[in-house]
Amino acid sequence: MKTPALALLLLLSPALVLAQQEVDRASTSPTPSGNNQLERVSVTRQQTDTDLRRREPVAKQLYGREELDKYGDTQLSDVLKRLPGINVSGGQLRMRGLGGAYTQILVNGEPAPPGFSLDNLNPAQVERLEVTKAPTADQSAQAIAGTLNIILKDAPRVVQKDLRLGVAYASEKPVINAGFTYGDRALGGVGFVIPISVYHWNFVNETDSERLRDGGLTRLSSSGWDRAHGRGFNVSPRLNWKLGDDETLTVQGFFVQNRFRNEGENTTQELFFDPVKSIRPVSVLDTTRNRGTFSANRVNVQYNNRFGEDRRIELRAGTGSGGADFNFNFFGRNAAGVPVIERITTGDNRNRNTTLSGKYSQYAGEAHTVTVGSEIERRTRDEVRSTIERDPVTLVAKDLLPGVEGQPFNATITRTAFYGQDEWEINKQWSAYFGVRHEQIKTVSEGVGSEFNSTSKVTTPLLHLNFKPDPKGRDMVRASLTRSYKAADVQQLIARPTINTDYPATSLDANQPGGPRVAVENTQSAPDRVGNPNLKPELATGLDIAWESYLPAGGMVSVGVFHRRITGLVRNSLVKENSVFWAEKARWVARPINLSKATTQGLELEVKGRAGELFPSLFEPTTALSLRASLNLYRSTVNDIVGPNNRLEGQQPWQFNFGADYRMKSLPISMGFSAQIAPKFDVQQTNLQSQETLAARSLDAFAMMQVSKQDNVRVSVNGLFQPKQGSYVTYTGLPDFALNERKPVAWWALNWEHKF
C-alpha cells in the first residue's frame, strides 16, 4: 500500500487541478477599464465550528450544519463515519477503535433511548454534534472511548421552511426519502420548529462463508444473499418559550417508528462431514425471513432561570416509551428439495423511561464558576422471546430450550448520580476544570433463568487543564486526567442461555425421520452463550494530552496522545461445562467474566483548512478549496490473554481519513469527497479463539448545484470501492475455522432542497 501522504496527493489531484485552473482563469481575466483604483473591502468572517471548538473549556469537537448538510445524507451514521477518530461498524458507533459499548451516545445531553439506531435519525433534524474524548462531571462517565452528544434542531431566529426530496439506489430498486422543517417565532416569546423525516432503505449483499468444524471432520461451503428493506419516519418538534429576560421553558419531543423486513437465501455444500457429529443432514438451501417493527417516543421539558448576574438553575424532566417485535423464520431443504428443518423465533420487548435532573451554578469570585447537580433515571424492560423447531415430517413443534422459551422476563434499572464541578480561570494563560461525580446503577431482573439483583457504584474524579503559551495567540495545549467506566448491560447480566442452533441441545436424527430427538454435544467453535449476574463495571483511568493550533483563516492542526488503563475488563470465557440445566450432555459455554486489566494508547493527528492557508506557496488565499486529513494510531494489550494480538476487541491498529471540498467560481457548483481506510488486523479474543477482521476502505463523494436562491440539487454516493468485509475465526489446537465474507454495495442518491 502507498504511504498516506502519497495516497492523499493522488486522491486530491483532480480537485487540485480544477482549483488551479480556476485560479489561472481568474488571474488572466481582463480587468474593467476606466477605473484602476482599488476599493477597500471589509470582510466579517462568521464563526466556524473550529472557532467554537477553540472556546470550549474542555477538549471537544463540534460539527454544525455545514458538515451535516454537505453530502445530503439521510442517515446520521453516514455523517459520523467521516469524522476523525470515528468509524461505524455493524450499526455501532466506535471511537478510538473501541466497541460500541465503550462509546456513550446522548440526545440533547441525555442517554439515547433503548434500541436507538443512528440510522433512524436524519441529519436535517440535528442542530450540531458534540464529540468529547474525556468525560465531564455533568454527563454520565460511561464513556471510556468518548461521548457523542446529538443536539436536535433548535427553534430558528427567523422563519424557516425547508423541503427536501430525494431518491436513492443501492440495489434492485430505488427508494425515496423526504423531509420538511418548519420553524418560526410567534408572539409572546414563543419559538418552535417541527422537523419531519420519512425514509426508505433497500440493500442486497452477497455473502460467502466456509467452515471447518468437528475437529476438522466436517467442511461446509456456503454462498448466498441477504436483503434488508423497510420504511420509517421520525419527528422531533421543539418549543422554546421565553418567560422573561432570563427565564425560558423548552419542550422537546422525539418520535421514531419503522418497519423492517430482512430475507435471504443461502446454499450450503457439504464438502465432507463427520457422520457421528452430523445428527441431522446439513441443509443445501436455507431460506430466512425476518420482519418486525421498532418505535421510540420521548418528551423532555427543561426550565432555565438566571438569578441576577451570578446564579442560574436548570431543571429537566423526561419520559419515554418504545419497543420492538420480530418474527424470524428459518427453513431448510436438502438437495432433493425435501424439508429438513424449520425454526421460528419470535420476540417482543417494551421499554419505559423516566428521568429527573437539576443543576445549580454560581460565580465564586471573579475566577470560579461552581456547579452542583443530581440526576435520577428509571428504566423498565419487559421481554418475551421463544424459538421453536418443527419436525418437517410429523409437523410437531418443540421448544428449542424447554422450560425457558416463551417465558417472560423483565428488568428494572435505576441510575442515580450526584456531581460537582469548578471552572477556574486561573490567569490569561491557564484555565482548569475540576469535577467529581458519583453514580450508582441498580438492576433487578425477574423471569425464568433471568433472576438477579446487581448494584454498581462508581466515583469518577475529573481534571481538565488548558494552557495558552501566548495569551493573545491561537495555540493551546489541553490535558485531562479522568476516570470513566462501562457498566454491564442487561443482556450480559442475565444468566439465561442462548443455544447455538448448529448443535441444539436435542435434535432430529437424520437416520430416523420423524423419530425421537436425541441429545447433542456442541463444540468449542459453536458454544452456547449465557450471561453472568456477578459482572462488575470496567473502570478506566485516562490521560489525554493534545496540542491545538488554530490558523487565522479558520483552519487547525491538532496532535494528541491518550492512554487508558482499564481494570475489570469484560471478555467471554470459553469453557466446557459437564453439567448444564438446559442439556443432558456436556456443552461448550461462552460466558462474560471480569479479567484483571488492559491498557490502550494512541496518537491522534488532525489537520483541516483552506488550501491557501495550508499550502500558501501552491494556492491563492481566495482559492475555494478546503482540505482535511486525520491519522489515528492505536495500540492495546489485554493482560490475561496470551499474545500476540491480545488487543482490545475490534480495535484496529490505525485509521486514515482524508478528503477535500471545492466550490467553483465560474459556476454555482460545489463538490467534494471523503475517504476512509483501515487495515486488516487480528485479535486474540480468548486463549482458545482468535479473529481476523478484513481490511476496510470506502469513498464518499458529492456534487451540489445551486439552481436558484431557494433551490439546490445534490448528487452523492456513499461506500464506493469497498472490499469484501468479514472475519476469519480460528481456534488454538484445532484445525477448525469459520470464514464469513460480505460484499457491501454503494448507495447513490439524488436530492433536491427548496427553501421557501
Structural account:
The chain is mainly beta. The chain has one domain: TonB-dependent receptor, beta-barrel domain (Maltoporin, Chain A), CATH 2.40.170. The protein is 7% helix and 58% strand. The chain contains six helices and 40 strands. The strands form five sheets. It has a 28-stranded antiparallel sheet that branches. Strands 1-6-7-4-5 form a five-stranded mixed sheet. Strands 25-29-28 form a three-stranded mixed sheet, with no helix packed on it. The longest helix is centred in the first third of the chain and has 25 residues, at 4-28. The protein is globular. The model is unreliable at 1-44 (pLDDT under 50).
Write out key terms for the chains shown.
mainly beta; globular; 6 helices; Maltoporin, Chain A; single chain; tonb box; disordered N terminus; membrane; Beta-barrel_TonB; 40 strands; TonB-dep_rcpt-like; 28-stranded antiparallel beta sheet; 756 residues; five-stranded mixed beta sheet
